[in-house]
Specification:
The protein is mostly helical. Helices cover 63% and strands 6% of the residues. The chain contains ten helices and three strands.
Length: 186
């Protein structure tokens, strides 16, 4: 998973740690070149705040944090330079401009997804799904077609997915599930 995505997911940050995260997000190129004391001065925080944040992210120290930022910086910057998803097109754009923006929107979506994927968690989930006797897919009305499509694709490779649609069937399936079942909730 991209380090910037990990930082965004942290919920138990102190105000100083939040300041540091904002500084890293706004100045990633500068951050990787700075010493701990320079970072402390730029953010008006103590050096211990830097190392506390490293520990919360699961890193050994500032050097490892800088390496992670260096590895993630290109993807992060691509994601930040995105189009406005709510209003990607303007009224008088040509068909070519619309198609190019659609391409950019799809690339942005893929990049954002890649930044969120933790390969270790993905490997663990795949292992659990392979071992499961029953896979139950719970969703709301807005994602039923997605769930049904997933069910169909999985059946094509020999894996049956149960997609209870009505609330009663969802509750009944959930209440009768045991350790042989895996639930996917969207």
């Amino acid at each position: 998973m991209n380090i910037f995505s990990k930082l965004d997911k942290l919920t138990d940050l102190t105000q100083n740690e939040k300041t540091l995260v904002c500084y890293m997000q706004d100045n990633p190129e500068n951050f990787i070149k700075m010493s701990a004391s320079e970072i402390s001065k730029a953010c008006f925080i103590s050096t211990s705040s830097i190392y506390r944040l490293c520990k919360k992210v699961g890193l050994a120290g500032l050097a490892e944090l800088k390496v992670q930022i260096s590895l993630s910086i290109n993807e992060y910057l691509k994601e930040q330079n995105s189009l406005n998803f709510d209003y990607p097109f303007k009224q008088n754009e040509t068909q070519n401009q619309v198609v190019l923006k659609m391409k950019e929107l799809y690339e942005q979506t893929i990049q954002s997804s890649l930044n969120l994927i933790d390969l270790n968690v993905l490997k663990l989930v795949a292992s659990i799904l392979k071992k499961a006797k029953y896979i139950d897919f719970y969703t709301s009305a807005g994602n039923i077609y997605f769930a049904e499509n997933f069910k169909f694709q999985m059946q094509e490779i020999g894996t049956f997915i149960n997609v209870p649609i009505e609330e009663y069937h969802q509750l009944l399936t959930a209440s009768t599930s045991d350790e042989k079942h895996v639930a996917i909730i969207v």
